[in-house]
Amino acid sequence: MNQHPDYLLNKISSPKDLKKLSLAQMEQLAQEIRTLILEKDAAEGGHLGPDLGIVEATIAYHYVFDAPKDKIIWDVSHQTYPHKMLTGRAYGWLDPDRYEDVTPYTNPEESPYDYYAVGHTSTSVALATGMAKARDMLGKHENITALIGDGSLTGGLAFEGFNNAAIEKGNLIIVVNDNQMSIDKNIGGVVTALKKLRDSNGQSPDNPFTAMGFDYKYVSDGNNLQDMISAFRAVKDINHPIVLHINTLKGKGYQPAIDNEEAHHWVLPFDLKTDKTTVPAPKTPNATTTVIDLLEKHIKNNEKILAINAAIPGVFGLDVIKNKYPENYKDVGIAEQESVTFAVGAVKEGIVPILLENSTFLQRAYDQLSHDVAANDLPVVMVVANGGITGGSKTHLGIFDNTMIANWPNWEYLAPTTLNELKSMFDWAVKQRKHPVAIKSPVTPVPEGEVVDEDYSTIHYDIKRGKQVAIIGLGDFYQLGEKVRKLLADHSINASLINPKSAAHLDVEALNDLKKDHELVVTLENNSLAGGFGEKVASFYGPSDMKVMTFGEKREYTDLESVASIYKRNHLTPDQISKDILDVLHQ
Amino acid sequence: MNQHPDYLLNKISSPKDLKKLSLAQMEQLAQEIRTLILEKDAAEGGHLGPDLGIVEATIAYHYVFDAPKDKIIWDVSHQTYPHKMLTGRAYGWLDPDRYEDVTPYTNPEESPYDYYAVGHTSTSVALATGMAKARDMLGKHENITALIGDGSLTGGLAFEGFNNAAIEKGNLIIVVNDNQMSIDKNIGGVVTALKKLRDSNGQSPDNPFTAMGFDYKYVSDGNNLQDMISAFRAVKDINHPIVLHINTLKGKGYQPAIDNEEAHHWVLPFDLKTDKTTVPAPKTPNATTTVIDLLEKHIKNNEKILAINAAIPGVFGLDVIKNKYPENYKDVGIAEQESVTFAVGAVKEGIVPILLENSTFLQRAYDQLSHDVAANDLPVVMVVANGGITGGSKTHLGIFDNTMIANWPNWEYLAPTTLNELKSMFDWAVKQRKHPVAIKSPVTPVPEGEVVDEDYSTIHYDIKRGKQVAIIGLGDFYQLGEKVRKLLADHSINASLINPKSAAHLDVEALNDLKKDHELVVTLENNSLAGGFGEKVASFYGPSDMKVMTFGEKREYTDLESVASIYKRNHLTPDQISKDILDVLHQ
Q1: Is there a shared CATH topology between the A8-267 domain and the A287-440 domain?
Q2: B557 touches chain A (CB under 8 A)
Q3: Which residues form the signal peptide (chains A, B) (predicted)?
């Protein structure tokens, strides 16, 4: 039920309605939008700081421009709650029963005011430049705007976009939303450049935008609605590329989000009175705390460890390392390519770099992990988080890391089945100084398990020996294998259960040995099947009589679908798997 | 035999020997180096312009600094012939019998003066920054230098590197080698920024480097040896990051290379008197000319075609399009990420973007082709060149494109077996406006073939029907399949031969139908086996009695190994394949 039937927002079904309002009414709207963001985020979690900071700019944009004919591309699109509320989707905030009806990122399937599904940073300027070029080729005349945060500016694609945008011939408006933050504190020379511009009220001659040939305007208070309206009016229908640099306050309207911006970039459900999360703390130890403990252990042991991440310390709980061991910590900003190539430089000089990467963003560094790391066969260590099936947006899926990492020459990609195995793999990865090693951090909870101390230079499978059927459960899907094994036992099948340890290298001897008394090998992996681990096993057994069944996710995108539903559609429940196995055995 | 026993260069076995020379002697050395570059390139082909332009800077560097303790990272490393000659490898130019003994890119296996195998651009600053950080952690004190060309500056990783380099605390020297060219004419806002600096003799306040916080120095004639020595002396042992911007002349010392820089960036063997190539022109029509003809046909047909490439028009012969149809042509500079995301912007607005990408550099755009294109399921068209086994450097291998493209959801990856099939696939890709489609341009020559006009929305295999064994020859390896089929016929095996057309989608009906009277399916693909086409077929047949053998390249890097040798080691000759097949049939 609509919690705020009295809100002015109820009368805004599209930006057209906005254009009838007075400034005072729009300021009231800004208040309403902020309240709604806080209420829904408190109930459900979501992006907070970026949305609170962009309220006035969004209202001003839709007041001045004529979307969807005029087009705005929101970088990352994690700041589009106000945009969504003003473009016919306010119900998704007004009515808790409809919270789920509006998705968190821009979504062209949801609204004609959204142009792309976007969740990775730094794409907006390139997208807008392509649209501007196309508009000119087609003889059309609408305004094309990209809105990019200062955090996203550090990503290389943003720069490539600016480099090309600078020489476009027609209308192109690039709003640099400068809130002095990426997810964590912003990093690097770009910070310096933007600070000079803010400190000089946009007048500093040291201006990287005008250096590249852009026209440039500065708005000192991007949260002042009247100023933003004037600024947008001044650039509307402009006939050349311009950078509109606006200074905004991330988290504006909610003091805890201003005081601690990183913790309020994205929030779990929380109590609006205390700002405390209402979600119970995750059980410890878990994979995240284990990795942090391992980093600390090796740093304390005076090994030359450098923990490197690209603007996502929160994903790994890296604040401990950052605060206690700043010399052993490097955040390169939103710049995954840099994180890897920087690590290559460090490892060559004798440091042990530990890359901490999120599976979905890892895609950004594909070439660096291949050309810079693999072709040079350097012992970079990498921990991959969220590499598996999750219920996230289709822009944030992490189901392709087996396909990337396990197919490059020279890389080892280890997948632990327990926390103690994670420790063993990490210790070995740091100690061996021969090849690049990545570790797939478990996505589903894994048990602590028995203490292990193993050399993974050559992969030797752990086998609970049975016969007829062998189940190979990779990483956190090993436990799924255990469940399947139990179900098969009910059918008098004493299946073997195997921990393969590696997504990249097969234990050929063990696999050959299975041929003696097994007729079917089943692989389970928490990854896309396409190009993954199972296909390698199937290919290995191809010329033999052994049958192989591969379980994992189909080649598909899922979008905010529950994990249970994804599992079911992909035949990944123990019941489905055992039934499928029995079907093949009896065919 | 040494062709120039009289050269001073014979006395330089390491940079130490260089330090004893007078300026006049070093100028003589510069002449010798230029002559040798021209002589070897004329005989063998190789990079020309970049090496001719960097002679003085290289001599000055090794005169002033103390390599290999002091370290210089050469971006792309296509300008390191002078560096190699001064670091004990002059024999690779002096003696034609030893031309093959020195490799074209930096190579740590070849010399302690080379630190990385590098062939992709824009990595040097990130590498040097990682090295500088490691040096400081280890309490060492050497000079770390990156040398990056203005062309490489347009790559996003370069910018990410600069952004982090700017905040390093210790010694870090970044030489921006500004020759006003990438491979083709340089592109974008960076051009504008550098021009302002050159035109003002480094004095323009519009300085993107100082804006980011760098110290900055300018050398107006980077081909003046004395000036370069002075400049390097001034920055040696500096205690903070500095950008040393040097203005050099690409191709200096060879007028044709100055007059037409793009054509002389990299050259085939040529006649020094006439500058004409001594290599016979490739037979036409071939895959390259076919793609150009197709582009021209669709442009003339007034379809809204935009041919997009990232600074490699020469690879595709795109000069024709650039000159005749400038409105339908876009070179984004060395910026593969931008090429793709720009295309996404254009296609969304109703243009048909045709990306022309080199398989090895395509890796740079992995995330854009996944997150920006695939997750949005937009009908971008892409032609992939050099996707297959070649005899190139390990930094330039193109054997991973099946593994990348055919494993993303929504992408189709077509592989033509003839030039007419290439036409049919291209025409369909442009016409269908539903999904992203890539085409694997043949690497080995393919015949013209019969005219085809097909809809590839659903893949239907072309089958020359036999029995017992089915050979599936993907793309340019179809002809290999034909040869194998003939050899099997000598053993009374009437094998089926299949053109599968797609690396991404299987014709399930056809594959199931083979089960009736075939016991073995053989896949042939010009790609790495890991994550490739064959593994998909093996996985498909996994639960059945069908045996599968997959042929392609092992998961490995090759480095300047001949194609014949790579084929042989990987059992890719018709004789080896047919023997392997017979072995499995008789086992």
Answers
A1: yes
A2: yes
A3: none
Q: Which of A160, A332, A351 has the CB atom closest to B156's CB atom?
A: A160
pLDDT at A184 (0 to 100): 58
8 Å CB contact of B212 and A208? yes
Which residues in B6-20 are b (16+ Cβ under 10 Å) and which e? ebebeebeebeebee
If phi over 0 gives left and psi between -120 and 50 gives alpha, with beta otherwise, what is residue A45? left
B200 close contact with A: CB closer than 8 A: no
Tens place of pLDDT per residue across chain A (587 aa):
999 999 999 999 999 999 999 999 999 999 999 999 999 999 999 999 999 999 999 999 999 999 999 999 999 999 999 999 999 999 999 999 999 999 999 999 999 999 999 999 999 999 999 999 999 999 999 999 999 999 999 999 999 999 999 999 999 999 999 998 755 566 789 999 999 999 999 999 999 999 999 999 999 999 999 999 999 999 999 999 999 999 999 999 999 999 998 889 999 999 999 999 999 999 999 999 999 999 999 999 999 999 999 999 989 999 999 999 999 999 999 999 999 999 999 999 999 999 999 999 999 999 999 999 999 999 999 999 999 999 999 999 999 999 999 999 999 999 999 999 999 999 999 999 999 999 999 999 999 999 999 999 999 999 999 999 999 999 999 999 999 999 999 999 999 999 999 999 999 999 999 999 999 999 999 999 999 999 999 999 999 999 999 999 999 999 999 999 999 999 999 999 999 999 999 98
Q: Looking at chain B, which residue has its C-alpha nearest residue A395?
A: B371
The Cα–Cα gap between A317 and A205 comes to 40
Task: List the single best residue of A127, A367, A529 to mutate versus B (max B Cβ within 10 A).
Answer: A367
Q: For chain A, give every domain's residue range.
A: 8-267, 287-440, 462-585
Six-digit token pair at A348?
A: 């060559």
Is some CB atom of chain B closer than 8 A to the CB atom of A571?
Answer: no
In this structure, are residues A193 and B211 in contact, taking their beta carbons and an 8 Å threshold? yes
Q: Does B501 touch chain A (CB under 8 A)?
A: no
Q: Would the CB atoms of A166 and B159 count as touching at under 8 Å?
A: no
- CA nearest A536 in B: which residue? B535
- CB atoms under 10 Å from CB of A544, counted, come to 16
Minimal Cα–Cα distance from A232 to chain B, Å?
Answer: 22
Q: What pLDDT score does A497 carry?
A: 98
Give the CA distances from residue A177 to residues A51, A219, A230, B63, B209, in Å, rounded to whole numbers and listed in that order. Answer: 12, 10, 16, 47, 22
Tell me which residues of chain A, numbers 311 to 330, contact chain B at a CB-CB cutoff of 8 Å. 327, 330
Residues 6+ apart with CB under 8 A from A501: A414, A415, A416, A421, A425, A456, A459, A460, A461, A462
- CATH code of the region B8-267: 3.40.50.970
Beta carbons of A163 and B555 less than 8 Å apart: no
Q: Are A126 and B353 in contact (CB under 8 A)?
A: no
May I ask the CATH architecture of the domain A287-440? 3-Layer(aba) Sandwich (3.40)
Query: What is the second-level CATH architecture of the domain B462-585?
Result: 3-Layer(aba) Sandwich (3.40)
Give just the sign of the alpha carbon dihedral B530, B531, B533, B537.
positive
Instruction: Tell me which H or E stretch contains A306.
Output: strand A305-309
Which three-class secondary structure state does DSSP give residue A444? coil
Q: Is A207 on the interface with B (CB under 8 A)?
A: yes
What's this model's pTM, rounded to 2 decimal places?
A: 0.97
Cβ–Cβ of A550/B539 closer than 8 Å? Answer: yes
Asked if B374 has any chain A CB less than 8 Å from its own CB, the reply is yes
Token pair of B132, please?
């500088």
Sheet strands side by side (includes B462-464): B462-464, B496-499, B468-473, B518-528, B547-553
Tell which of B154, B182, B539 to mutate to test the A interface (max A CBs under 10 Å): B539
Closest CA to B159 of B299, B337, B405, B279: B337
